[in-house]
Amino acid sequence: MLNRFLALTTLIGATTLFAPVASANQAEGTLIAQNNNRFITATSTQNEPLYLNSDKRYSFNLEVAKGGRFAGYNLPAGSIIRGEYVPAEGGLRYVAQAATVNGRTFNINASSEILETVKDPRDTSGGAVAEDAGIGAGAGIVLGEVFGDADAGEIIGGAAAGAAVGNLTADNVVVIEPDQPINLYE
Questions:
Q1: Distance from C-alpha of 52 to C-alpha of 42, rounded to nearest angstrom
Q2: Who's near 99: CB < 8 A, 6+ residues apart?
Q3: In contact, 123 and 164? CB cutoff 8 Å
Q4: Entry pTM
Q5: For residue 103, which phi and psi values (nearest 5 degrees)?
Q6: Which residue has the higher pLDDT, 152 or 25?
Q7: Burial of 175 (0-12, 13-18, 19+ CB in 10 A)
Q8: Spatial contact of 40 and 184, defined as CB atoms under 8 Å apart
Q9: pLDDT tens, 12-57?
Q10: Can you list the alpha helix ranges (DSSP code H) found in the chain?
Q11: For residue range 87-98, what is the model confidence (pLDDT) as tens digits?
């Protein structure tokens, strides 16, 4: 009888002892799920690439690509981020000021890393380089005629110079593709 009593007491004591541990773990799991993400990923709402000069401000919206908890709010995929691209050393930075979720707008304060400038691909594409080479070749012919008969050397030299000058003088811009991920940090 005493053994049954001890076994029952031990069983009840063990259940009581370990029950709070199980609920504490469950509570910790809930708290972890409520923590904010360090960043949220968004993409441009524009359907075409943006070519932005790095010395100007541009107001454009972003759309949350993958939902999560950020800046104290649950931002599901498709939420709209309102903000602007602002000049920063080496390019532009997106600065988010608000998020719209289900028709409600909330203030947030987040920004991206620097989106770096590149040579404007519209000026360095095959077509643009060919056009610059054509202009250079035409200039080679004109100069060749001014200084004597134009031959293949002047034409080819002018074409190469035109292509090189066109590529060197291409503007630096920040290119934002429609599906390009932009991480916003608090």
A1: 18
A2: 64, 71, 73, 75, 79, 80, 81, 82, 105, 106, 108
A3: no
A4: 0.60
A5: 85, -5
A6: 152
A7: middle
A8: yes
A9: 454 444 433 333 333 333 333 445 788 999 999 999 999 999 999 9
A10: 2-34, 121-124, 126-146, 152-168
A11: 999 999 999 999
